[in-house]
Structure formats: structure tokens, C-alpha cells
Write a structure and sequence with these properties.
single chain; 18% strand
């Protein structure tokens, strides 16, 4: 583990390789699991504000869930997460003509229809952030649905921290990420990667 400010980073974030391969997985991370994506308190309002921009992209089932319980709920572990359909699919999941799922919020953002990209937990995946007292822990979350991303990451030799540069800066800031890069260089010099 490496500490940068109040953030503890697992060495896996430097050592492991990862590069999403949507052609292989078809966006399965949005439709599998036992709960929705983790959401921060300040993101709930942003999700609600995006609803008009994404409403027509959502399935009738997703619309019914949102109308009944809202865009988020508290899961069994007490975490705030996106609402889900059929016990697993994120309510913001949409599909393209090839059957690949994607995030309706991200689509609306890229089209300039809303100003929120998507929950930072989704943007950071396969990293998960845990609260550990006064510290935040940055850990690599391994999941079978991402096997193709691991293989492609190895092929392209792309460490997780480089793959997730943009969301890491979004979460912790440019200065923090610059420090992370310095740590990675030092670890490499010491042959720890």
C-alpha cells in the first residue's frame, strides 16, 4: 500500500493491467451484480437532474422503478447505490443495436444534453473506493465479467492507474494524480512493478 495525502492506494493499482473491451463484454458490468453502482450523496441530485435528458432511453421497467423508489436506494450493506431493474440491471442501462449496454447518462453527457458524466464509482471501475477511518482506500476490484479487459490491458501493457487517469483526477485532483505518477516511477525504479 502507498499513501498519498489521506488516500491509501493498493499496489495492484500500479501492477495490474486493464483496458475495457466492450466488444467482448458488451458492458456486462452495468447489468450484473447484486446491487446498483455506488453513488455519493452529492450525485443523487445530479442523477435526478439528468432524468429529462435520458428518460426516453430508459426501459419501461427502469422508468417504473424510478417512479416508485427514485434513482437510488440503500442496499443491504447500507450503501447508497443506483436503483436496479430485475434485481441486477442499473436503471440507467441502455442498449445499442448490437446488444451492447451502455450508460444513458454518459450518452446524454457526450451529446451535450446534461452536464453530469456518470457516478464517479462507474467512471473509476475497476477501482473501488472504501472509507477506512480518516483514510480512503483505493483498491482494484476483480470481477469475472472483466476478463477480456484484463487480457487487453496485458496485451497493451496498460496499468490500471493509467487507464483510469481521467476519473482519478476527477475524484482526487490533478496534484494528487501527479503524485501518484511520481510514486509509480519510483516503484518502477525499485523494480517493484
Amino acid at each position: 500500500m502507498i499513501q498519498i495525502d489521506d488516500v491509501i492506494v493498493s499496489l495492484d493499482v500500479f501492477r495490474e493491467k486493464f483496458l475495457c473491451n466492450l466488444e467482448a463484454c458488451k458492458g456486462e458490468c452495468c447489468i450484473e451484480g447484486d446491487a446498483g453502482a455506488p453513488v455519493e450523496e452529492d450525485e443523487v441530485k445530479k442523477l435526478e437532474e439528468c432524468l429529462p435528458a435520458v428518460w426516453e432511453l430508459l426501459s419501461p421497467e427502469a422508468k417504473a422503478v424510478i417512479e416508485k423508489q427514485g434513482v437510488v436506494y440503500t442496499d443491504e450493506e447500507g450503501d447508497l447505490v443506483t436503483s436496479i431493474v430485475n434485481g441486477k440491471d442499473c436503471v440507467f442501462t441502455c442498449y445499442d443495436e448490437k446488444g451492447c449496454c451502455f450508460c444513458a447518462i454518459e450518452k446524454a453527457f457526450r451529446e451535450g444534453k446534461c452536464d453530469f458524466y456518470k457516478p464517479v464509482s462507474c467512471h473509476l471501475y475497476p477501482i473501488r473506493i472504501d472509507n477506512c477511518g480518516p483514510f480512503k482506500a483505493v483498491n482494484y476490484h476483480r470481477w469475472d465479467v472483466c476478463k477480456a479487459a484484463v487480457l487487453l490491458g496485458k496485451k497493451e501493457n496498460l496499468p490500471i492507474y493509467k487507464f483510469l487517469k481521467e476519473p482519478l483526477i476527477r475524484k482526487f485532483g490533478k496534484d494528487w494524480y501527479a503524485e501518484l505518477e511520481l510514486v509509480a516511477e519510483e516503484l518502477d525504479k525499485q523494480h517493484m512493478l
